[in-house]
Write a structure and sequence with these properties.
With 346 residues, this protein is of the alpha/beta class. The chain is built from 9 helices and 15 strands. Strands 10-9-8-11-13-12 form a 6-stranded mixed β-sheet, sandwiched between helices. It has a 5-stranded mixed β-barrel with strand order 1-2-3-5-4. A two-stranded antiparallel sheet has the order 6-7.
């Protein structure tokens, strides 16, 4: 049988097969290959027990994509949720999620929630202008006032979707608005920090019946993307995550231009044509990527300094102090044995 992994809890994997949820374990043969099983994976099962509704996973089918943090596979679209207010709209965080989706080649839709809290239409128009020009669909919603919920349902109707965004922007509230009986946990934004708190504890793929008969949304409710960092991309490739910057980069003087202060940089020469938050986001993420690369290089150098190769095998080097302490201990043991053995000086 082939099924879809919808939830992982402890050592149990919950797999949907033809509308039935089976509680599964992973076969040892699969564990030995160090193949991880993720929510969203299509897996092959055996040892199905019809009475207990249990089975064993022995194969993970090929994936079309994987999001590493939080770990989930086979996503069709990312719904990036931001809030107009409470917390305040954050362009850089929004760009972080959009670049993240671009990195994994996943379609992204921007959902601006809590639209009822901002009577100023100019802010709404500004957001639309920036991101529609970049070919992103932008929808404005209010879980409280049921604004834009129908369009959100239409977007969720096909494939597997994941909602991402800062804590407190209303991801769980939006899903509750689609299906009131869902009762996902929600929390208010802290008045002191103006930030939300995490309410989702683990990644779970939920099925949400939609008003349009026959359609069911598959939505991943995740524990957030608060630690999302650009630590797996080479700095030279970061501009590919910003279409407008990448297009300008084609006319840069040097192929390895990072668009910071290089001579002949076409991006720098056209900064007035770029939304300020987009370029600011690019610079911020670029510094993360550079720092990560430098840290990895430093760790590699430290590792080399701590190890030596002898006879084709790698050994940990012993520090001078530990080496001398070891010699003193060896001499003491030999002395206690009262043997006539000369110790070698190194």
């Amino acid at each position: 049988m082939i099924g879809l992994v919808t939830k992982i809890f402890s050592d149990f994997y919950y797999v949907q097969v033809e509308g039935i949820i089976l509680e599964c374990k992973v076969r040892e043969v699969l564990k030995k290959t160090k193949t991880s099983v993720l929510v969203g994976d299509m897996v092959r099962l055996e040892e199905y027990n019809e009475q207990s509704k249990q089975a064993a996973i022995f194969e993970v089918l090929p994936r079309k994509n994987v999001i590493p943090r939080p770990a989930i596979a086979n996503i069709d679209k990312v719904i990036v949720v931001a809030a107009m207010k409470e917390p305040e709209f954050d362009y850089i965080q929004l760009n972080r999620y959009l670049a993240f989706a671009k990195l994994h080649n996943i379609e992204a839709v921007i959902c601006v929630n809590k639209d009822d809290l901002s009577p100023d239409s100019s802010a709404r128009e500004h957001i639309e202008k920036i991101y529609k020009d970049l070919s992103y669909e932008v929808i404005f919603t209010s879980a409280k006032e049921n604004i834009g919920i129908q369009r959100l349902e239409e977007i969720l109707a096909s494939g597997i979707s994941v909602l991402c965004g800062q804590s407190g922007v209303g991801k769980s509230s939006l899903l509750n608005a689609i299906l009131p009986g869902l009762n996902l946990r929600t929390k208010e934004v802290s008045q002191k920090t103006s930030r939300g708190t995490h309410t989702t504890r683990h990644t779970e793929l939920m099925e949400i019946p939609l008003l349009d008969e026959g359609h069911i949304a598959k939505v991943a409710d995740t524990p957030g993307f608060s630690n999302l960092k650009f630590d797996s991309i080479d700095p030279i490739d970061l501009d590919t995550l910003f279409d407008e910057i990448f297009e300008l980069s084609k006319e840069c003087k040097y192929n390895d231009c990072l668009h910071i202060e290089e001579e002949g940089c076409n991006v720098i020469e056209h900064l007035d044509d770029l939304p300020s938050y987009r370029y600011e986001s690019y610079r911020s993420f670029l510094l993360e990527a550079i720092e990560s690369k430098e840290n990895m290089s430093s760790m590699s150098i430290k590792d080399e300094s701590r190890t030596k190769v002898s006879g084709g095998k790698k050994f940990t080097k012993i520090s001078s102090k530990n080496r001398e302490d070891s010699r003193k201990k060896s001499r003491q043991i030999l002395a206690n044995l009262d043997l006539d053995i000369e110790t070698e000086e190194y």
